[in-house]
What we know:
Blueprint: H1 2-12, H2 17-26, E1 33-38, E2 41-47, E3 50-55, E4 58-70, H3 79-93, E5 98-101, H4 107-113, E6 118-129, E7 141-145, H5 150-160, E8 166-167, H6 171-183, E9 187-193, E10 204-214, E11 217-225, H7 228-242, E12 246-251, E13 260-267, H8 270-280, E14 285-291, E15 300-305, E16 308-312, E17 321-324, H9 325-335
Parallel strand pairs: 4-5, 11-12, 14-17
Antiparallel strand pairs: 1-2, 2-4, 3-4, 3-8, 5-13, 6-12, 6-13, 7-9, 9-10, 10-11, 14-15, 15-16
Amino acid sequence: xxxxxxxxxxxxxxxxxxxxxxxxxxxxxxxxxxxxxxxxxxxxxxxxxxxxxxxxxxxxxxxxxxxxxxxxxxxxxxxxxxxxxxxxxxxxxxxxxxxxxxxxxxxxxxxxxxxxxxxxxxxxxxxxxxxxxxxxxxxxxxxxxxxxxxxxxxxxxxxxxxxxxxxxxxxxxxxxxxxxxxxxxxxxxxxxxxxxxxxxxxxxxxxxxxxxxxxxxxxxxxxxxxxxxxxxxxxxxxxxxxxxxxxxxxxxxxxxxxxxxxxxxxxxxxxxxxxxxxxxxxxxxxxxxxxxxxxxxxxxxxxxxxxxxxxxxxxxxxxxxxxxxxxxxxxxxxxxxxxxxxxxx
Length: 345
């Protein structure tokens, strides 16, 4: 089955062979692969690896839809819609409250909206010239890394868990991230501070930047740093290393005109998500009449008030917001902006 899924992937996507081999070596799992067959032939498949995510500071599990593809001979026949529905059922069985994905192009936003997804992940692109970035290296030491490094992973994990709504990465996932960077000609750059008066101690990590050259600019996938001065020093080091003066990086969403959608989310367990939302927004009071045509157990009435959410199959008194699953996702994630980075897009 693995080889058939790989061949379908190669047929449908433009990824180079090195990336495909890396993905199926490090990230493929039969447990998280969904397929539809015609006879003995795989005609549609998707991967749904599980990722932990901090949601308003509370950790939940998500299923990330990737590699969703259908053989050209079977497109336009509802095959992918059927496969997505089957993946939702698998998520329900696994008690996963949220499904996430990054559409391969803008046109797919409308397609996934039909199955309940809504834009939920946003980012703010920043383009700057290295000459405009303050030079203040101090006594930092830099280390370029293209393979898994435990000190890098530990530092990034500590910083990542301070982000309130962020998709987290496991050690196994980080191995694939580093391989993907290497294949793309990039690297992770560590900023280290010499040990304070202790010659025997290892340098202390102060920041990590993930970057690779793309066309005529340097793309920064993400940066974790103790402060902005260290971040700027890392950017200057990367620009010097790759001999590029234009840098494109991304900041967390801030509800500005500059931010752009980057990914979508689909609520799988409405009760779980709304309980978390109510608990972290005790000032909210909302009555919702939810209709979920695919996951009908979600359909019903939800009452958010004073930090709690109650559910009823029959309406209580008062006016209700009439929402589809897609509209509920829009309502929640317009306020709770999610962020992800370093994904194998």
